[in-house]
Amino acid sequence: MAEEGDILISVRAPVGELNIAPSRCVIGRGLGAIRARKIDTSFLWHALHFSAPQLHSVSQGSTFDAINRGDLSKLTLPLPPFYEQHRIAEILSSVDEAIATTRAVIEQTRKVKQGVLERLLNKGIGHTRFRQTEIGEIPEGWCVRRLEEIADIDRGKFSVRPRNDPRYFGGDIPFVQTGDVVSSDGLLTKHSQTLNQLGRAVSKEFPSGTILITIAANIGDTAITTYPVCCPDSVVGIVPHHGIEADWLREYLVLQKVSLDRQATQNAQKNINLQHLRPMPVVVPPLEEQQNISRGIRAMNASMADTGVELARMISLKSSLMSDLLTGRKRVIDALPMAAE
């Protein structure tokens, strides 16, 4: 049984996750309840969070990660005077609040961005005259084209079996797979494997500026290459024709990710193929508008990236503060009581 305000701790995987009981409640076997006595509850919360690595090390080695009451009882926590506990908790909680606020800003910006993207890519900027098409209303001067009409579309390949045959790897030719595209954040600047000339001969090479799109397991993730790469058959390369900007087309494909995922067939793993991509209808504005839309999207992305950097800075600050304040390495001087005069 946990009382309102008790700290709830997960004693089974994931070990060490924390929460606060909102009211008196019955807890399951995967949780423990910790009630602060002669210690600031908020300080105890932060101290337990900081001690999570100790709990993880104790939990390892069993059938599944878990700790028991004895493991928790043996946990040692450096304990400053109560007034200093309270001040440390205030400092750490204020950083937590700033982190939560920044995360909320990022999430709200992401939602707003989605709406702005849909508007920019389907309605453009400042248009007042529209016309009906087979896929809905679009600005006058725009057109609807099949993806294969505005870009060359080819599937990657790697025809060797087994796929990890070392004779084909280890050269200087970038070999980009699904994971590289997923982790690229839209612009491919690094790769995890390379091929030699033997590997190149059995793969498919795409030029710099190609839009890569994943078609197996992770469906619809995209990245623009910044150098020539080879790809396996889990990736399709889309090379825009003259008059089609790669940045704009990639953003349009990003909007289609959910739709592509719905179309995926489910065998051993989800996948789509060229028959899904080639006939895809694309709303195409003139090149100058494509470029203007891309600039607007880049500005939004830059703003989100700046906020992400600020979030990472605050998380790093929180980690440093916990390491300093919860170990006593640094004392909170303004928390010390004044000497009697």
Arithmetic mean of pLDDT: 91
Question: Which fold name is given in CATH as the topology of the largest domain?
Answer: Adenine-n6-DNA-methyltransferase TaqI, Chain A, domain 2
- State the separation between the terminal residues, measured CA to CA: 48 Å
CATH superfamily of the largest domain: DNA methylase specificity domains
Kindly provide the radius of gyration, computed on alpha-carbon positions and rounded to a whole number of angstroms: 27 Å
Strand order of the largest sheet: 7-15-12-13-9
Q: Quickly give the structural class.
A: alpha+beta
List the helices and strands and how they pair.
Layout: E1 7-10, E2 18-20, E3 31-34, H1 41-50, H2 52-59, H3 69-73, H4 82-123, E4 130-133, E5 136-139, E6 143-146, H5 147-150, E7 151-155, E8 169-175, H6 178-182, E9 187-188, E10 193-195, H7 197-201, E11 204-206, E12 211-216, E13 218-225, E14 229-231, E15 235-240, H8 246-255, H9 257-263, E16 265-266, E17 270-271, H10 274-277, E18 281-284, H11 287-325
Helix pairs in contact: 1-4, 4-8, 4-11, 8-11
